[in-house]
# Entry
Amino acid sequence: MTEPGKSEMRWQRKDLLGIRELSAEEIVFILDTAEAFKEVGTREIKKVPALRGKTLVNFFVEPSTRTRTSFEIAAIRLSADVINISAGSSSLTKGETLKDTAKILEANHADLIVLRHSSAGAPQFLAERLTSSIINAGDGAHEHPTQALLDLYTIRQRKGAVAGLHVVIIGDILFSRVARSNIFALLKLGARVTLVGPSTLVPREFEKLGVAVSYDIDEVLPSADVVNLLRIQHERQRKEYFPGIGEYIRLFGLTKERAKLLKPDCLIMHPGPINRGVELDSDLADGAQSVILEQVTNGLAVRMAVLYLCGGISA
Amino acid sequence: MLEAEAIGRALRRIAHEIVERNPELGSVILAGIPSRGVEIARRLAGIIESLRQIRVPTGVIDVSMHRDDVGTRAELPRMQASHLPLPLENKTVIIIDDVFFTGRTARAAMDAISSFGRPARIQLAALIDRGHRELPIRVDYVGKNLPTAPGERVRLRLENVDGEPDAVWVVKEKT
# Structure
């Protein structure tokens, strides 16, 4: 082996807490690494020894099936041993603090902790106190970095590049960690971002981040290269924020009629789970422009890359 | 230590030996280890084609995720997607590395190749053999033996990868 050029970047982070603190170069580094891990999925043996001997704890204080499963498969393909802990089965329900639970995980030699938590900042709290690698799998309304990374990976794969594209994010932006992480990532890689939704859920304050805000979806759709539809989160909507399902569909739902405004090569994305017929028409979700299932497959490669990079350096 | 002409000679020697030892050239695949092994594989394929009028397929085998020191380094380099012309059954896969040193990269490469399938045989070629093996692995084709001290580093520069003329030299490791 010889030395690569000095300008060549190398990965040095043990934690992935959010997109905000990453440089554009680091984001591209993760996407490139994910490219290599995507290839592993095409091999006869889809498992590599990279994290052999490491233990990963999927610590999901807030319920999630798809993200937890994706992390679990990713870890298994990297040869790590995986333990799943969910809110109901953890001592948190017995009043143990997050810090104490985490200390116990570390004392049990958890090398990586994938944390989903309802409080913003919980992953950072742990990262500052533990030597284990902490991967944020969604913290409150703060960030969901691996979702943004898999969205960017999918966009880059389909469009060749992210820079210069017009990406429209539609729905509940205010409470969405997916939207926040996507906004940071897209802007860092040079995309133009427009947020669309009810003014209660898409306040003008977002413009300070460097994005455009619009309340007229029909005006925005014709110039979109990508539309990313966020799930309307019934379970956490308070009535004062939300106009009601019927009115939401009428004003902001991506219906078949409205989809005619899109460019033929505009990608339709959704982080899932989809409310079919609410934010997105059911046929469109399964249609030619939809890349929703590719997002899931790419998520596996992106999470393998993140686990490999953060778990693969010595603390 | 070595300049462009000597590197060219070393590559031609490797190509000749590959041709001699593999009468069934049609079943040979050259798998380069990024980044310079890939360029060396490409050049070897070109030389072999000029010798025998057969275009030997080339591939990329990145060994990063098969290394035995994951978790012990403070930083990780960029990796490349592996790509091998499939299937490998009944094929001879020749691993192409730039500098053969401890043997750990070659071991990782063999491990990686086996996840793609089961080739009839795996061989190993390196432009430079600098010695200091740490594993019971030997190299089948060597361009140039370059005895070194453990504290030294062999540097290789290849046009098309580094944008400067081919050269090999030995430097003292910085501490």
Q: What stands out?
A: The radius of gyration of chain A is 20 Å. Residues 1-6 of chain A have pLDDT under 50 and may be disordered. Chain A is about 35% helix and 15% strand. The first strand of chain A starts at residue 55 and ends at 60.
